[in-house]
Amino acid sequence: MSASELVVIIGPNPPSRLDKALARDVPEEASLSRARLVKLLAGGAILRNGAVETDQKAKVAEGDVFQITIEEAVDSHILPEDIPLDVIWEDADLIVVNKPAGMVVHPAPGTPGGTLVNALLHHFGGELSGVGGSKRPGIVHRIDKDTTGLLVVAKSDKAHHGLAAQFEKHTVERQYNALVYGVPDAADPRLRGTKGVSFAPGNIMKITTQLARHKTDRQRQAVRFEGGRHAVTRSRTLETFGTPPVAAMVECWLETGRTHQIRVHMAHAGHGLIGDQTYGGRRKLNAKSLSPLAAEAVAKFPRQALHAAVLGFEHPVTGEHLRFEAPVPADFSDLLAVLRN
């Protein structure tokens, strides 16, 4: 296996920790994230003034010389699988796909195969420069198994590093379409009194909470106002269904991207997603408001009605602004048609 060597000289006023100092001073074109540098330190691949350094918290001084040995990317332990992909965009650095319902993004103990990563490895056919020292796609964000829509995946360390930075800074544009029970409305006194919920001009609902794992069900997330991770979701109603209205199509956009964020936040606001069995999105609708056919279609919809419709970001290598849109899938579209008629 071939390897390359990178020499880094620590500049003035370095951060107190070695990992932070290296992350600051390593050349941008090397595309070595702090997490990757920590792994290289642990693996004995970094020399400090000629001696192996493994302590990521070690103090550094201006002028310290580090030699970093970077091995050629190795094949991933994840196996490629011939699974069809809806590719929206692809170049040497990244790929944008429209994920179908039922597909998990990354292998996990309960889902070792049939994932988006397995499909991508087959799609790339070995032509992958590698991310984090392994020839694997760089996953920078995920959507739930039964949520459909747009995902961007890195094909190189540089792209992975650049995309991850944009997600961390919340500069990526992400808009979702969701079908919810009820109609979120600024005039609703119940919503006005719900903690964490506020409204902006244009009937835009803003939900601001902390999110953390549920205390008793580790597969769920729960709203918190102390502890957990900061989460902000904005939404507006695009269309209502029923007379009087008992359901709505809403457009949601994320300021943060936490696990199950839209599903948990809309349920917290009392407008759970149609089909969402995890967060209580199974309700009996007023039979007088919808046709029997529409009420039955809502009751039988088998998954959360959520679709990642818009994805926009700066290309991490070329700097070009990219923006993609994907229409809702057939099952979502069919449900809309029934609700409208």
Keywords, please?
elongated, twelve-stranded mixed β-sheet, single chain, 341 residues, 8 helices, alpha+beta, four-stranded antiparallel β-sheet
Structure description:
The chain has 341 residues and is an alpha+beta fold. It is 21% helix and 30% strand. The chain is built from 8 helices and 18 strands. It has helices at residues 18-25, 34-42, 116-124, 157-168, 189-192, 261-268, 292-300, 330-340, and strands at 3-9, 46-48, 51-52, 65-71, 74-75, 87-90, 94-99, 134-135, 138-139, 148-154, 173-181, 197-200, 204-213, 221-224, 229-241, 247-254, 306-314, 321-325. Strands 6, 7, 9, 10, 11, 12, 13, 14, 15, 16, 17 and 18 form a 12-stranded mixed beta sheet that branches. A 4-stranded antiparallel beta sheet has the order 1-4-2-3, with no helix packed on it. Strands 5-8 form a two-stranded parallel ribbon. Strand 6 (87-90) and strand 7 (94-99) form a beta hairpin. The longest helix has 12 residues, at 157-168. The radius of gyration is 23 Å and the shape is elongated. It starts with a strand and ends with a helix. The mean pLDDT is 89.
Unreliable segments of 5+ consecutive residues: none
The fraction of residues in strands falls at: 25-35%
CA radius of gyration is 23 Å
Give the biggest beta sheet. Answer: 12 strands, mixed
Whole-number average pLDDT? 89
Number of E strands: 18
Please give the count of helices. 8
Distance between the termini: 63 Å
Secondary-structure-based class equals alpha+beta
- The helix content, as a percent range, equals 10-25%
Please provide the ordered H/E string of secondary-structure elements: EHHEEEEEEHEEEHEHEEEEEHHEEH
The global form is: elongated
